[in-house]
């Protein structure tokens, strides 16, 4: 997977602490040239020779022109194998995605659209830490004008609905919407109504995210000051369980903690992250995990690109890439990431995938012996069988509370 980042937005949302920038003007030609150059450089530095997905995140990548999207894809195809079946995702904002613009993105190579929409009681969350390739993604929105104002969005609910309709027309079966719950003042009934509205809009792929208050954001300051009340924890848990029940009853597969798909519309790009595959981050603040060319299979590096766009461009122009830091992950760190990410999915960590990272020590040898994992199995949270290690339906909802014990058991081995 390749993850190009477009760091610019027209306006910063009240809940956002992503690496985004609001500037008077963007030199798109310069940014495009640097994205192309860095993608080319990092692909040649890595052992990655085939790209199965590309995910344009941000920021608001729909503010970039289709020409920029096409140029990056051409660079990828020139440096590695980019099959016609590759998933290409673009995150998009309803205010920058009219039908003609979406048509331009599709012509440029985008084939999947992910839209953040806030239906009443539900708030679409932004760019998956890593989103789909060849897909267009609309960043966090709402279908309720009052919630949109609370979130600091610049578009209206009507624009959000129109964007989803246009996306489904251009990307049939490959449209995803993001919903966020746990907004200040949000009730159980409002959330349930929001889910029904979402199902009426999009029936392919839905992602759910609980609102997280990040330090330094306007929304966090309002909550701290007592002007906005957050729902209590038991209500948040109830909202999540309600959503799971409603979506599964509607025919969705709950294939990852926050993600639900129907009719095979899973996000292959995001699955690659949860399966701990190599990926290359391109652009300001992008993250990556890959094995450098010429190195052994245990020397996977964690890379972070320079976050500030002007500094990043200066570094790309001078040295071909803007990597700010990189560290070699130890075998234990790689297994910790595999466990933490893999257990987020309904398939869990398979024996085959574990064996790729740990050929000498099997899943059974680590978690099939007396210890925390066995206790969690006995309590009905975890399963270890011929398929691998995975959470039960109940365990998936409380994964964060299970991981510390599992990581402790892993570290003792």
TrEMBL record:
Ranges of residues in domain Radical SAM core: 1-253
Domain of life of the native organism: Eukaryota
A Pfam family per the record: Radical_SAM
InterPro entries assigned to the protein according to its UniProt record, in alphabetical order: Coproporphyrinogen-III_oxidase, Elp3/MiaA/NifB-like_rSAM, HemN_C, rSAM, rSAM_sf
GO cellular component: mitochondrion
Gene Ontology biological process terms from the UniProt entry: porphyrin-containing compound biosynthetic process
PROSITE patterns reported in the protein's UniProt record: RADICAL_SAM (PS51918)
Single GO molecular function: 4 iron, 4 sulfur cluster binding
Listed name of the protein: RSAD1 protein
Organism: Pachyramphus minor
């Amino acid at each position: 997977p390749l993850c190009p980042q477009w760091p610019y937005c027209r306006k910063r949302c009240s809940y956002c602490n992503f690496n985004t920038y609001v500037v008077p003007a963007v030199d798109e030609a310069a940014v495009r040239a640097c994205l192309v150059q860095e993608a080319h450089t990092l692909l040649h530095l890595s052992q990655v020779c085939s790209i199965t997905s590309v995910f344009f995140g941000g920021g608001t990548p729909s503010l970039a022109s289709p020409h920029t999207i096409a140029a990056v894809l051409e660079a990828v195809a020139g440096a590695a194998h980019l099959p016609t079946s590759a998933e290409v995702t673009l995150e998009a904002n309803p205010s920058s995605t009219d039908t003609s613009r979406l048509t331009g993105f599709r012509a440029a190579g985008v084939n999947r659209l992910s839209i953040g929409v806030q239906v009443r009681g539900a708030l679409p969350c932004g760019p998956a830490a890593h989103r789909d390739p060849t897909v267009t993604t609309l960043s966090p929105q709402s279908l309720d004008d009052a919630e949109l104002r609370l979130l600091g969005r610049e578009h209206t609910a009507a624009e959000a609905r129109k964007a989803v309709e246009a996306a489904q027309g251009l990307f049939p079966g490959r449209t995803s919407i993001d919903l966020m719950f746990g907004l200040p003042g949000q009730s159980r009934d409002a959330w349930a109504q929001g889910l029904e509205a979402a199902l009426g809009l999009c029936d392919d792929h839905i992602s759910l995210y609980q609102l997280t208050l990040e330090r330094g954001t306007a929304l966090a300051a309002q909550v701290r000051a007592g002007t906005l009340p957050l729902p209590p924890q038991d209500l948040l848990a109830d909202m999540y369980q309600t959503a799971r029940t409603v979506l599964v009853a509607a025919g969705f597969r709950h294939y990852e903690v926050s993600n639900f798909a129907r009719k095979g519309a899973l996000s292959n790009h995001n699955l690659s992250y949860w399966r701990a595959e190599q990926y290359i981050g391109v652009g300001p603040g992008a993250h990556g995990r890959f094995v450098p060319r010429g190195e052994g299979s245990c020397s996977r590096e964690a890379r972070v690109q320079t976050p500030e766009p002007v500094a990043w461009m200066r570094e790309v122009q001078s040295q071909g890439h803007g990597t700010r830091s990189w560290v070699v992950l130890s075998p234990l760190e790689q297994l910790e990431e595999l466990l933490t990410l893999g257990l987020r999915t309904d398939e869990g960590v398979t024996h085959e995938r574990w064996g790729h990272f740990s050929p000498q020590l099997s899943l059974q040898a680590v978690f099939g012996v007396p210890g925390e994992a066995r206790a969690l199995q006995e309590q009905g949270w975890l399963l270890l069988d011929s398929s691998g290690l995975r959470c039960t339906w109940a365990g998936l909802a409380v994964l964060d509370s299970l991981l510390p014990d599992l990581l402790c058991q892993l570290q003792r081995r």
